[in-house]
């Protein structure tokens, strides 16, 4: 984007949505939210001053943030308000095969995320979290189905 070309989009318009009369956005910009914008920016592998970011990508991360929110609400509701953990998380040993499977995928994602963060590759860490949450936790563990190997 360039101020001299007049194609700069105000980030506040991306966050809150805007009705713009531009060729690129004949129906305006949909509300993408601050979290969607932040995550979209973090997901890019930047090798210079320019980021090629489109509203569709930001909207996709908005939907991802919404999925995280809904999954957390679902899990908390399933646990119930009286839930108390009997062991610290690091001492918990899952008994069911599906629980062991999703925990193994979580351990892989945490390791991958850590390696990317140590290498200052935030985009790789975002990709690891995104993949685990959507493909393993939500699609398989919460919704049900067969785990992928």
UniProtKB/TrEMBL annotation:
Claim: Disulfide bond is one of the keywords in the record: no
Any one GO MF annotation of this record: ATP binding
Record has rRNA processing as a keyword: no
Keywords for this protein: Aminoacyl-tRNA synthetase, ATP-binding, Ligase, Nucleotide-binding, Protein biosynthesis
Gene Ontology CC: cytosol
InterPro entries, per database record: aa-tRNA-synth_Ia, Anticodon_Ia_Val, M/V/L/I-tRNA-synth_anticd-bd, tRNAsynth_Ia_anticodon-bd, Valyl-tRNA_ligase
Gene Ontology biological-process entries: valyl-tRNA aminoacylation
CDD domains: Anticodon_Ia_Val (cd07962)
This enzyme's EC code(s): 6.1.1.9
Top EC group: ligase
Domain of life of the source: Eukaryota
Signal peptide: none
Boundaries of every Aminoacyl-tRNA synthetase class Ia domain copy: 1-53
Domain annotation Methionyl/Valyl/Leucyl/Isoleucyl-tRNA synthetase anticodon-binding: ranges: 99-142
Protein name: valine--tRNA ligase
Encoding gene (name): Vars2_0
């Amino acid at each position: 984007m360039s101020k001299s070309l007049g194609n700069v989009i105000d980030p506040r318009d991306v966050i809150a949505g805007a009705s713009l009369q531009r060729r690129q956005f004949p129906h305006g910009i949909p509300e993408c939210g601050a979290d969607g914008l932040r995550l979209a920016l973090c997901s890019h592998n930047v090798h210079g001053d320019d980021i090629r970011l489109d509203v569709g990508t930001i909207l996709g991360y908005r939907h991802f943030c919404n999925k995280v929110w809904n999954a957390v609400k679902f899990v908390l509701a399933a646990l119930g308000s009286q839930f108390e953990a009997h062991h610290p998380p690091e001492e918990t040993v899952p008994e069911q095969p599906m629980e062991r499977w999703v925990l193994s995928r979580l351990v892989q994602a945490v390791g991958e995320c850590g390696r990317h963060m140590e290498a200052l590759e935030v985009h790789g860490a975002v990709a690891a979290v995104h993949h685990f949450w959507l493909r393993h936790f939500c699609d398989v563990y919460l919704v049900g189905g067969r785990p992928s190997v």
